[in-house]
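I am still getting used to backbone structure tokens and would like to learn alongside you. Please make up or recall a protein chain and show it to me in full. Would you write everything just below, so we can both look at the same thing?
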Amino acid sequence: MSVVISIINQKGGVGKTTTAINLGAFLAKKGKSVLLVDFDPQGNASSGVGIELKNRETSIYEVLIGKNLFKDIVQPTFFSNFHIAPSNQSLMGAAIELIDLEYRESRLKKALLEIKENYDYIIIDCPPSFCLLTINALMATDKILIPVQAEYYALEGLGQLLNSIDLIQKKMKSELKILGAVVTMYDKRNKLSEAVLQELQQYFPYKIFQSIIPRSVKLAEAPSFGQTILQFDPISKGSEAYEKLAEEILEYLESEK
């Protein structure tokens, strides 16, 4: 059975897209069939796996408004078992267009039914705001993974995000679960990073994955080449961290079955 994981944090610049594309890549490396859904109008996940803008004339936007099926837009990546549903700037207007459409909160969930069983894991890279697109993603989701940046103000807004998720759970989707949090951009030389980690461990009421994503020039550079860290520098510390995260998530989810 396919598991849908949304990568979400309404605070921008926390490594959300980096986590989405690299977690997907390493799950694929482990032999899992993976679909990455780029649900952010900025389209960074699409460019981060090498999908050029000119090749995104059909995108997740057309699926949301009912113009295309998923099978019409899904594209391959460097791994045969790692596919992407790309995004483009048309998605910016989708939140407005959805308002007048039937089942506006669950259109992504309905569309995914067409291809859901083709994949072991579906990863959704959510927009950095709590909007109708994000609600669509959560309605389609089984598990939520929250990247938390190891920097000042990192935990600001996390409580608000958890409250928003709780509201969705209570009002719309009781089976929605938080998989946990992953600490990103961690600098072991920085006392603040350690302080943020300790504060998260003290106050975050859900699982915190032991795999910690370091602050890394290689991780920052890889998307500009249209590559995941697995392609760009497979022996880097960033690559090692995301591989461990993928292993940890697989072990955790397998133990739930």
